[in-house]
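ok trying this again, last paste got cut off
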Amino acid sequence: MPWDDTVFVSAHGRGLKGAVDRIVANDKAAVLTDEKNTPAAIAAELIDRGRDGYTAYLCENLGSAEERIRNTDVAGLLEIKAAPLNVLILIKEYEAGGDEYVPTLGIPDEEFATIKKLITKEEVRVVTLAKLKLRHDMCLWDIGAGSGSVSIEADHLLPNGRIYAVERNEQCLGFIKENLNKFNTRNVTLVASEAPEGLEDLPDPDRVFIGGSGGNLFDILEVIDARLPADGRVVINAITLETLTAATEYFDNAGYNVEVTTINIARTRPLTEYKMFEAYNPVYIIVGVKE
């Protein structure tokens, strides 16, 4: 098996999070573990992030009489008590057709596992990403991630960046994990928490997308404002006048430059004799640029 495309990661005496960040950003990883950051601990972190789609080779006591190499999956590592001296090899498995729509912009809505109403529509998603003005190495917070569709599409625009998908809904968390695996995202970290509480331990953002606030919009914007750099951007998708009004008032009072775009979408209905248009609720895309 070729190793020239392998990333070598040391978790020995270091934090687990940083090691797993590097693992999920690559297709093939060789990991040096220690007594705390064991293969089972690494597996648990991968599963918690919804990134368990790897074939695992646990190589123990290499070069000794007790040498053993075991082939399993990430879940299987949880059941194995590894020898103290080991190297863990992880190789990404790709689903058939899983990369069909990657990395093109505008993945069809039906490709995402989701609660029907909790997804940013394809056309709105594309405009939202354009308004975010992402650069390759930025940090993006996706608050109220829903299905994770915005994070997944942003992943291909941020090859050297970091994306944090923040979501509190248990059902949505399951769908996000499924979608992260399906579309083989590399730089997305799932944060299972309600905002703004879950934002405390995240690195400062360059860009923020808010798809849902759970009624905490003002508190979330207060936290964002304290940590967003000058020229940082916040993009909010709103479907109610109340959210539109609250967001624009906050940005005006905080001295942001504000732009609002209204998106009205109507699609033809499939499998009908006549091509009738089905209209969706208008969406207000609110952009606040910090001065």
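PB: full thing came through this time. The chain has a mean pLDDT of 91.
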